[in-house]
Amino acid sequence: MAEWNRRQFLLYGGLSLVTVGTAVLVSKGAFAFEESAETAKKLSPNPIPVNWDTLIWNGKIIDGTGAPLFLGALAIEGDKISALFREKEGARPGRLQGDNGQFSLAENEQVLQVENYDSAISDIREPLTFWADENTPFVLPEHCKIINAAGRCVTPGFIDVHSHNEAYLRTNPEAELRLTQGITTQIGGNCGNSVPSITAFRKELGPLGLNYSQLVGYRNLRNQVIGDSARKATTDEIDKMVALLEAELADGAPGFSVALEYHPQTAITTQELEVYARVVKDFDKILAVHLRSESDGLLEAFDEVLSVARQTGVAVQYGHVKALFQANWSKHSLLMERFNSAIAEGIDLWGDVYAYDFSSWDFGTNRVSISEANLIDTLQQDRIFVGSDSGLYEGGRVNHPRACGNFPRILARYVRDKEVLSLETAIAKMTSLPARRFRFHDRGTLAVGQKADVLVFDPEQIQDRATRQQPGLISTGIDYLFVNGIETISASLPTKALAGQWL
């Protein structure tokens, strides 16, 4: 994979262009070099100047919507995607042929030809030119970085809606263990465990290496009003917790989280949960739920959450969907029946799942507590996307390999090796679907005007390496990562840039 800085990059060949806003969509053509800017000016008295900071070309563009991938290029200007280029609609994506830089399109045998490109040394011997049509060149600024993404996938950055990384971010604001699996946005405060004040936490952390948002956790509300006692809340205490919840939601929190299974949150009644759910509904936010039981009482616990959704109309995010322990694996099909029936009924219900057959309760053992067959079926559900449930602590301590390997594992094991998800579907489950669910409307897809959270990875080499024995090993196969248009991984190495935004 090559990158270089040059003043000019122009597309050459008989092109049919369609302009959508500021986007230029390329239907077909050939890449070629010209000797200099002077040559381009002689050929066209009116070259088109652009102010792109980065141009990623020759890659397999997967836009995050679930649509088929296409051969193309993407331009970044500032913190946004400025242009998308694609081959002729309906043409089959090409494949890299040998080491001569040629890219053959199987359907029409046209060749995208990179003359003077020596892939063995990843260098360019002449300035590259890029033409808008046969007579009109684009002219790039001196600072524009050009990345040849041959054989790579270019996708939106991954969005992890289920994380537990607050302590880690305090000591590691660069968030390298997150970036090195392609994550550009994450949501914390899950399972009822959030910070006392999101505003204060935002000021404490300062700039981060990725985009971040924090749910309001029920345990945090209890700690402020009741303490750690696992007793039922009084009416007055519930009113105080409602006031705290309203203030945080008004300040921008994306929702409210609760872990009905964990101390002291076990003390919450269904009726009390309905009170908070109505508040969340009024703010048009998300109720993120860890069920009261994921094992013996799984179905009854799920029914409780459905009851709350029916009574209040709240949007429910069902966290880390699973039937835990072998004695309960047979309940999975019944759970999925209830899940899909609720959606058909009109309940606003989505779920997330991680890519491992053991939970954090199994860490340090060899126990398999989750059926992989059930896991695969869960991944294939339309309304369930990917979330890591990652626990990261001070200095990068890890309590489960999913914290470092969850997203690459989806692509390596379940897309490439087992072929139970298409690449496009898997990417959608890690980008546009979570973005849409949590109202991140300017992220999660590759489209002109969207924030430039962009990932370049090798689909043949991407691999999770974290294990039970070594849960902190970082994944491989990530070549480049951009957060708001800024490189946070360059040539597979973290840049330590603090490019993230609070969402």
Automatic annotation (TrEMBL):
Keywords: Hydrolase
Domain Amidohydrolase-related: 154-462
Record bears the keyword Acyltransferase: no
InterPro entries per UniProt: Amidohydro-rel (IPR006680), Metal-dep_hydrolase_composite (IPR011059), Metal_Hydrolase (IPR032466), Metallo-dep_Hydrolases_sf (IPR050378), TAT_signal (IPR006311)
Cofactor: Zn(2+)
An MF annotation (GO) of this entry: hydrolase activity, acting on carbon-nitrogen (but not peptide) bonds, in cyclic amides
Gene Ontology cellular-component annotations: cytosol
Pfam families for this protein: Amidohydro_1
Top-rank lineage group of the source organism: Bacteria
Name of the protein in its database record: Amidohydrolase family protein
Organism: Heliorestis acidaminivorans
Taxonomic lineage of the native organism: Bacteria, Bacillati, Bacillota, Clostridia, Eubacteriales
